[in-house]
Amino acid sequence: IVVENMVLAATDLGVDSVILGAAPAAVAQDEALMKDLGIPEGFRPILGIFLGYGAEDQPAKTHSISVIRV
C-alpha cells in the first residue's frame, strides 16, 4: 500500500515511476551495498521504485503474442 501511494503521489506531481520487484532481492544479497544505502542490519528491501521524468510522452505500445502449438 505504501509503494502504491508513493507512485500515485508521484503521478499527481507529474513524475513518472517504475515499481521494481526483483532488484531489491539482489540488493539484499550484497552487504556492502546494503550498508552504502543505509539499510539497517536485520532489514531487507522488498520493493523499489524508480522516480523521474520521461524523455517524452509516447503512445502505449501494442503487443502481439505468437503461439506455436505442437
Question: How would you sum up this structure, described in words?
Answer:
This protein has 70 residues and is an alpha+beta fold. Strands 1-2 form a two-stranded antiparallel sheet. The model has no long low-confidence stretch (mean pLDDT 88).
Task: Compile the SSE list and pairings.
Blueprint: H1 2-12, E1 16-20, H2 23-28, H3 31-36, E2 48-52
Antiparallel strand pairs: 1-2
Rg over alpha carbons? 17 Å
User: Which series of helices and strands comes N to C?
Assistant: HEHHE
**Biggest beta sheet summary:** 2 strands, antiparallel
DSSP strand content: 5-15%
Helix content: 25-40%
Give, in spatial order, the strands making up the sheet with the most strands.
1-2
Report the span from N to C terminus.
42 Å
Uncertain runs: none
Helices, by number, come to 3
- Class from secondary-structure proportions: alpha+beta
- What is the arithmetic mean of pLDDT? 88
Shape: flat
> Would you count the extended β strands for me?
2
Name its key features.
single chain, 70 residues, alpha+beta, two-stranded antiparallel ribbon, 3 helices, 33% helix, flat
